[in-house]
TrEMBL record:
Residue span, Response regulatory domain: 31-148
Record-linked InterPro entries: CheY-like_superfamily, NreC/VraR/RcsB-like_REC, Sig_transdc_resp-reg_C-effctor, Sig_transdc_resp-reg_receiver, Tscrpt_reg_LuxR_C, WalR-like
Keyword check for Magnesium: no
UniProt superkingdom: Bacteria
GO molecular function, one term: DNA binding
Every HTH luxR-type domain range: 173-239
Modified residues (4-aspartylphosphate): 82
Protein name: DNA-binding response regulator
A Pfam family this chain is assigned to: GerE
Keywords: DNA-binding, Phosphoprotein, Transcription, Transcription regulation
Length: 245
């Protein structure tokens, strides 16, 4: 008797080909405008910045009068603004740019002296921070990237000394907004004045980053500030640091 042949084993189904993950589109470089009345300074800044693949200098201005229309037309991400320039200084140029653009760039004022009174006025005008001309290349590059992502470039010791000089004769009574801060908002403003980031404040306070972000937004609203730098200036001028710190 013939033994029946076993049925052939089914052929294995072909494995599905892996679906390639989408490759994220490369981010365009951060667009920067340089404003300084010294051509050598602008050239040095350009060389340092354009050595980085994610940074691009798109324009230069030698005076504040040139800077304002140039920034309006180019709409860069970041402006490096010398505080002392002819025709219109960096403070007035900063004020005009921030007041007339729906989506203004982040402005970093550049100065020779850490205790330059112009710096304080520029910060009050809405500059995201300041940088010393003697800063090394890594500090310069880091500062541009920092402000471009929405953070403020704060040097707590320098801001404290500048504020002390400007508020020496101010009345001791605290500003009305101080009483409107909640206890946690007051904690956040104190930590902002020490230069801590949202992540660092989150760890210090033991709350989530989104909670810190919410408190920061409330502080900005109550102090009438454009950003963290202005809020810290308001903390000194409004008597909050002296009274609570």
């Amino acid at each position: 008797m013939t033994t029946p042949m076993p049925a052939p084993a089914p052929l294995p189904l072909p494995l599905p080909l892996p679906v390639p993950l989408p490759v994220p589109a490369p981010r365009p470089p951060l667009r920067i405008v340089l404003c300084d009345d010294e051509r050598m300074v602008r050239t040095a800044l350009r060389v340092i910045l354009e050595a980085e693949a994610d940074l691009e200098v798109v324009g230069e201005a030698a005076t504040g009068a040139e800077a304002v229309p140039l920034v309006r037309s180019l709409a860069p991400d970041v402006v490096l603004m010398d505080v002392r320039m002819p025709e219109i200084d960096g403070i007035r140029a900063t004020e005009q740019i921030l007041a007339t653009m729906a989506e203004p760039p982040r402005i970093v004022v550049v100065t020779t002296f850490e205790n330059d009174a112009y710096v304080y006025d520029a910060l009050r005008a809405g500059a995201a921070g300041f940088l010393l001309k003697r800063a090394d290349p890594d500090e310069l590059i880091g500062a541009v990237r920092l402000v471009a992502r929405g953070d403020s470039l704060l040097f707590p010791a320098a801001v404290r000394s500048l504020a002390a000089a400007h508020t020496a004769g101010a009345p001791s009574a605290a500003a009305p907004w101080v009483a409107r801060l909640t206890e946690r908002e007051a904690d956040v403003l104190r930590l902002m004045a020490t230069g801590l980031s949202n992540h660092e404040m989150s760890e210090r306070l033991g709350v989530g980053p989104q909670t810190v972000k919410t408190h920061v937004a409330a502080v900005l609203t109550k102090t009438g500030s454009r950003d963290r730098t202005q809020a810290v200036i308001a903390a000194y001028e409004g008597g909050f640091i002296m009274k609570k710190g």
